[in-house]
Amino acid sequence: MQLVLSKDSDVPLRQQVADQIVLLITTGQLHAGDELPSVRALGRLSKVHHNTVSEAYQELVRRGWVTRRPGSRLVVGKALVRPAAGSQDLDDLINYSIQRARRMGYDLQALRLRVRERLLAEPPDHLLVVEQEAGLREIIRRELQDELGWPAHGCSYDTFAREPGLAIGAQVFVANHYVEAMKPFVSSARPPLGVVYSSAVEHIDRINRLEHPSIVSLVSVSEGVLRTAKSFFASAIGKKHVLQEVLATDESVPSLGDSDLTFCDSVTLGMVKSRNKVHYKLIAQDCFADLAASLG
Question: GO: which molecular function terms (predicted)?
Answer without folding.
Answer: DNA binding; DNA-binding transcription factor activity
